[in-house]
């Protein structure tokens, strides 16, 4: 994961992009600002990207955004993007491109049940490979020999990318097991780590076969990982079991597309996509990002749930070497959820984005 060196000051790129990203990212910024001396002085650098930016100035991911992130920033936060569902000449998803430009090869998505809310007990982390699979976006369409059209998409799986995402998953499992040693509460209290490799190699025996074998090869090669249990699930049965008995999953590692899909499913288990954070992590850079999309239906209404973004800011701080500040944010969020007075409509409340953020700020 990104460097955990403590820094004396921080420069964070802020890329709200589209839709509710422009409402929830400022909420996360307010929380970071409220931490005061718990973290070094932060300079926030507003940066452009997104579908709206493409329509306004012709580039979904301006070169200046990439340059500033690479040359000037210690980390970043990304909001959400509204890529169209049809091909638009010259447009390509800026978040997919950013992950590649910055080599943010892991999308780490912790999903936990929410204090005070109904639902099953969940405490898992989905580790999604972030650079390849169908997201290399090599698609083509031709006239089909018998009439009509035929379209193809190339799916790329490399041993290199699969091994490094596997290593990240085993490291996270080791760290989680270490953190819960001696704990008495929680579904995983005191238990050893477990990594579930998600694939579909009974059908895609070459591509998913390589993913599965590469992740296993990392496990086989490193003695320290033997403290972690490893198992496998076909992606379809992963979805079934996740909904039937989510408590059995600790860390799940998956190729890009499966990881994207199962993490939205996992978000449904804990009440809302508006609660689930993520970080895009590489060896040299990290970018927080709520799992939810741009939600055009509620854009501009000040009712988007800011918690996924605020928790993503917490993950960012954790990765940058400020675990106490990260814990402080999480504790404030949990307390607000538990009290239940301020909740946005996605989790059954009537509060605004601003009210929920204010309630969290009061506890910092
Ligand atoms: N914050 C996650 C997000 O924006 N999800 C929507 C997404 O990634 N869509 C792909 C795209 O619009 O390019």
UniProtKB/TrEMBL annotation:
SUPFAM superfamilies registered for this protein in UniProt: Isocitrate/Isopropylmalate dehydrogenase-like
Segments forming domain Isopropylmalate dehydrogenase-like: 11-360
Superkingdom of source: Eukaryota
Any Gene Ontology CC annotation: mitochondrion
Annotated keywords: Magnesium
GO BP annotations listed: isocitrate metabolic process; lysine biosynthetic process; tricarboxylic acid cycle
One term of GO molecular function: homoisocitrate dehydrogenase activity
Sequence similarity: Belongs to the isocitrate and isopropylmalate dehydrogenases family.
Protein's recorded name: Isopropylmalate dehydrogenase-like domain-containing protein
